[in-house]
């Protein structure tokens, strides 16, 4: 990964060049292997018919993926604002929260994956008889808020300089603006993955193909759950980060 520390050290405000740099850093983090689980979640709820009962078309898949990516970007903006206000005093608190976030989200993904694999059957009581999608832009945005804290220790060489840049601004809006640009950048690969998955889900109109597609997404989510549990163990201090 490229070293952005010298570039970020010269940032003293939210300028077009600063936004471009941090957005690029976000895109690089977004395509890094450690960020694949975030994309897997987008694939799961836009392409996983067994989880939400939807066969999303391109526009719907794009809308849901956008809501999910924006939710992640909002969490990044909040973190950036916190660093702009109090600097690295917040870092230890964030690490403690991340431990619970990783383990909690890994359990959530296991349940979703088992539902897609038809191992468990989730039933929800409907309060009305009105036909309504189980997933909306708001739902996807909320899911993005949940997963916004998840990142990878291997991505720290890129994320840490951005946070340093946010903290050196000494301004809540500047710090939040920089990290929001970072979040938008890392949301681009997620947006693409979720949209493509939604299109594929609509193409799988033959039942047996749809079942295989759901199973593939379920396996993908299981892998994401294992990865999140592994990262949680790293943040808890039980395991050492992988070298490289």
How does this model look, in words?
The chain is mostly helical. Helices cover 73% and strands 0% of the residues. The termini are close together. Helix 6 (91-116) runs antiparallel to helix 10 (207-235). The model is unreliable at 49-56 and 124-134 (pLDDT under 50). It has a domain at 5-98 and 135-204.
**Total number of β-strand segments?**
0
What value does the average pLDDT take? Answer: 75
Distance between the termini: 10 Å
Unreliable parts: 49-56, 124-134
What structural category characterises the helix and strand content?
mainly alpha
What is the rounded Rg?
19 Å
Return the string of H and E elements.
Answer: HHHHHHHHHH
Oligomer: single chain
Which geometry do the CA atoms define?
Answer: globular
Quick one: biggest sheet?
Answer: none
Percent strand equals under 5%
Helix content: over 70%
Number of helices: 10
């Amino acid at each position: 990964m490229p070293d952005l520390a010298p570039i970020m050290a010269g940032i003293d405000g939210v300028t077009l060049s600063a936004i471009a740099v941090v957005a690029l850093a976000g895109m690089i983090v977004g395509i890094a292997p450690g960020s694949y689980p975030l994309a897997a979640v987008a694939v799961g709820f836009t392409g996983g018919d067994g989880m939400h009962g939807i066969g999303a078309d391109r526009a719907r898949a794009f809308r849901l993926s956008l809501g999910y990516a924006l939710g992640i970007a909002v969490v990044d903006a909040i973190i950036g604002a916190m660093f702009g206000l109090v600097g690295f005093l917040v870092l230890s608190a964030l690490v403690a929260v991340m431990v619970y976030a990783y383990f909690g989200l890994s359990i959530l993904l296991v349940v979703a994956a088992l539902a897609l694999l038809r191992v468990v059957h989730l039933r929800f009581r409907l309060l009305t008889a009105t036909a309504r999608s189980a997933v909306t832009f708001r739902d996807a945005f909320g899911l993005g808020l949940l997963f916004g804290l998840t990142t990878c220790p291997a991505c720290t060489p890129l994320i840490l300089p951005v946070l340093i840049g946010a903290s050196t601004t000494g301004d809540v809006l500047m710090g939040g603006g920089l990290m929001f640009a970072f979040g938008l950048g890392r949301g681009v690969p997620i947006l693409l993955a979720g949209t493509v998955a939604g299109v594929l889900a609509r193409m799988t109109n033959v039942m047996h193909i749809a079942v295989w597609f759901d199973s593939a997404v379920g396996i993908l989510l299981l892998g994401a759950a294992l990865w999140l549990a592994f990262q949680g163990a790293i943040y808890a201090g039980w395991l050492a980060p992988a070298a490289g």
